[in-house]
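Need residues for this backbone.
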């Protein structure tokens, strides 16, 4: 592990003591915009990796190597801690060991494992199936024994399959196994969320997953924090916004043959270069390459 990885893990542990809001990202651009807006952490979402890389739903189609590659690209671009969705660990306990090593090496600050059977599904889809509590505990212990500094997030999807009480029992077993963060997926009501907090929030940081149109009531970070949650994620908001805005732009382009009617809802070339830090990168390049000196990177033209 690098000193940077150690520092990020320590930073995340510190953030969890006060609470942190982490939007979902899935590539370097989404992560860079999240960091630019001042968020202190980001959630690398498996669902949005499936949407963006494959154009497919979150049903277990993305491979461990594809996620690892994505983590590495994001970690190279931003300095904030990354909480990474590792699905089921991509197999049994031995697969979990490989996944944790690979993801931590790529730059994951926290690694989330869930108790679904393979192929897994989005936590707010129906038709999920679970591994046994014992198998999941074994996978968590494998992850904890393998990690260097990364935090391990234990997720249970049992509410939708076995009910709230069974989910609480599973969560108890996962906390006892040593999970650093607890994620009970898809509680269907504010009361269920309050029950979870009253049982666990004094013992382990709790994660709240806000999914627009999902099973769980969507609430603000402040309200969830007051309830007892210490990590709040909005994993799919970025991708859903992109789908909405891009679909609108494409309909305008199809209708008009130009994007002009949509210009008030998009950045221009200078705007995108500003957002991704082109000036800073070209300035750094100019320290090593004379060809990059005196270059207007926002327009691509040499200044007069």
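Answer:
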């Amino acid at each position: 592990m690098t000193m940077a990885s150690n520092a990020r893990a320590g930073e995340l542990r510190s953030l969890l003591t006060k609470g942190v809001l982490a939007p979902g990202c899935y590539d370097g651009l989404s992560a860079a915009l999240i960091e630019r807006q001042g968020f202190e952490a980001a959630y690398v979402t498996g669902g949005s990796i499936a949407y963006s890389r494959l154009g497919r739903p979150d049903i277990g189609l993305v491979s461990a190597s594809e996620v690892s590659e994505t983590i590495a690209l994001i970690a190279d671009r931003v300095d904030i801690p990354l909480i990474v969705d590792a699905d089921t660990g991509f197999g049994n306990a031995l697969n979990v060991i490989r996944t944790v090593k690979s993801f931590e090496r790529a730059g994951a600050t926290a690694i989330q494992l869930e108790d679904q059977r393979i192929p897994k599904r989005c936590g707010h889809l129906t038709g999920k199936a679970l591994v046994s509590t014992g198998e999941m505990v074994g996978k968590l212990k494998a992850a904890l024994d393998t990690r260097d500094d990364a935090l391990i997030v234990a997720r249970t999807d049992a509410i939708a399959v076995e009910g709230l009480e069974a989910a609480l029992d599973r969560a108890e077993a996962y906390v006892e196994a040593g999970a650093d963060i607890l994620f009970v997926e898809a509680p269907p009501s504010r009361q269920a969320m309050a029950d979870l907090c009253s049982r666990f929030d004094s013992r382990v940081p709790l994660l709240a997953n806000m999914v627009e149109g999902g099973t769980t009531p969507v609430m603000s970070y402040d309200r969830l924090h007051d309830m007892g949650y210490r990590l709040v994620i909005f994993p799919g908001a970025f991708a859903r916004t992109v789908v909405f805005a891009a679909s609108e732009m494409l309909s305008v382009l199809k209708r008009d043959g130009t994007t002009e009617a949509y210009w008030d809802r998009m950045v221009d070339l200078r705007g995108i270069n500003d957002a991704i830090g082109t000036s800073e990168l070209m300035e750094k390049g100019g320290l090593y390459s004379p060809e990059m000196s005196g270059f207007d990177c926002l327009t691509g033209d040499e200044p007069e």
